[in-house]
Amino acid sequence: MSHDAMTICDPQQHIQLWNDSAEKLYGWTKQEAIGRIYHELLQTRSYEEDPDSMFRLLREDQWEGELLQTRRDGELVVIKSRQSIIKDIKNYPDHILIANQDITAEKCTEQQLQDQVSLTTSVQNIGFWSWNILNDHSTLGYQILAALNHLPGGDPTRSQQAAQTLQSVDQARTQQALQHALKTGHDYIDEYVFTDKNKHKHWIEIQGRVYLDEQRKPIKMMGIAIDVTRQRQKERKLHASNHHLHTILESLRDAFFLLDKHWRITYVNQQAAKLIHLSAEDLIGQNIWERVPQLKGTIFEEKAYEAVQSKKSLHFEAFFPPTRHWYDVHLHPTSEGLSVNYNDVTAYKRTEIALKASEHKFKALIDANIIGFTLAEMDGKIIEANDKLLDILAYTHEDLAAGKLNWRTITPSEYKHLDDQAVKDLLNTGVFMPFEKEYYNKHGQRVPVLLAGTIVEHSRPLSAAIIVDLTPQKELEKQKETFMSIVGHELRTPLTAINGSIQLAQRRIQRFLQERPEKLPSDVEVMISKLCKLLEQSLRQTRVQNRLINDMLDVSRLAIDKLELTLQPSNLTSIVEETVEDLRYTEGNHPIYLVLPEQRHLPVLIDCDRISQVVANYISNALKYSDPEVPVTVEVTVDDAEARVWVHDHGKGLTKDEQKHIWDRYYRANDQKCTGVNLGLGLHICQILIQRHKGKVGVISKKNKGSSFWFSLPLVPTGI
């Protein structure tokens, strides 16, 4: 304190005490200073533009800051001033104690540094930075803050606040660097992150120097703050780009490595190291021909030298004997040397060889003309056809060349939906499964065929199909069905006679029992009762046999398209009612319920006998697969367009797989509770009959939950 210029003023700032240091500093003697107003004598103003200094002095009884004052000779000095209020015994302000210290030299150095910074801010984002160690007070220069879009102009308060927002990039490193600078006096260099008012981050490099007081103690650090954001962003982008490139190269299925002009490996990805069976550490910096001597004297060495000398990229496939593998290789000359990427294509080459062998076999099959083969477009144009297909359709190669073969135009209209489904399957899955249809040959005759195919070119698209002539098989089937029809007729003739004889025997026994007045002996009655049961069993068996023969005949007629329908306007409700009543009589005690709609008249155009046959078959199946005590329900429903007949049972139900095949010819569901003989023809016949009536059939079933079979028929206007 003895070196400070000491002044005591009254509350009106009249000077009452003026020590020697003040006289020496300002040039005014005690006699000249005493009684003068302090701030007028020294023309005092705030060095840091602090208008609230007096207010804070009165409020807090003390103030500390930097002032700009004028000496007697007119020279300006920068003063570090500490001012305190002295109060009387009643705690009223009595005097002001002022202790001033000349810091002009220090401020000149700081100003010179700021001036240097100002000269460079036009080309670089550089500003002044200072840190007062004594009060831990930091500031950032206006220049750099303005450059960072933080301040529109000089604002000391915000400059101080901005300095406080600096965050060290590495806190531990910052503390170590500060301590080192304070202890040794060496320059301080560190990096901070600054967030501007727009929430944008900036990287600031701080370069500072330590300043000491008269006792050689550090009191301040000053220096420059440089905006290195662009540099750091470029470094980060470059790092990210390198990382991204490294990630891409490491994720490639291809092996990749770089060679310099001396054939040294400068980079190798993991796939390349894996194929060479060496680690990346073992390869980097090594001469490729020395580190992998198996490549010497091979096509790989030959092509590498050719690519470097010609400065042209090369692509080739080669077999490498040491590994017995095929490789697909790309060589690209660069300014630094050569980039190489290659891939193991052994599996592909083996597949290619196998495919060529398969193509050879397939071509041999096509050329053998065992089956028909075609390449065709989706619009129907046939591009290629082998001799077998041309023979099936009775066309010539000249007709094919003239564009006369179109699979759409030679297909009967009833198969259009099958063709459309095949095209849809081709586009969705690339193949269409085998199905049967017919073609018109050149003479207009129908030719039954079986065909299947696959798509071979997606851009057009183009499909390949194999076609099998089913004419011999269809002829054989017709002969078989004709034979079955003849056999059925021959079987039914004696069966009719047997059935008649049994019924005649039953009537004669009944007449005998009715005409004898006296009671028969008990043993005779027992014998006659057993005889009646045997006759009834025989009669039932003849009915079963007759039904089986009728099914066989119906299937035969359907197969050779000889089943004729006699269509006439009818009431479907009446047909169902009559059929149910007949079955209630023949089936005995098995309950059959009937549920009819409010609209009793359901006009349909049908063959009454055939629809009754379908209803009877549905009900008979339900009875066979149900417990005798559990009822079977027959239901008729109707909407605006169609009537539907349902038969519900409570049997074991059908699995999903069984439901797919239940309408197939000769298919029988596996159910141990089923009684009687079943050829698996009934439901197949029902389906064909309903389809001939332009109706539909279906089943809804769950295993162990029963089944509901249905068929629908279109309604017709009344009067038809």
TrEMBL record:
One Pfam family this sequence matches: PAS_3
CDD domains in the cross-refs: HisKA, PAS
Domain PAS: 1-61, 241-311, 358-430
Residues annotated as domain Histidine kinase: 486-717
PROSITE patterns, sorted: HIS_KIN (PS50109), PAC (PS50113), PAS (PS50112)
Catalytic activity: ATP + protein L-histidine = ADP + protein N-phospho-L-histidine
The protein, known as: histidine kinase
Organism (species): Dictyobacter formicarum
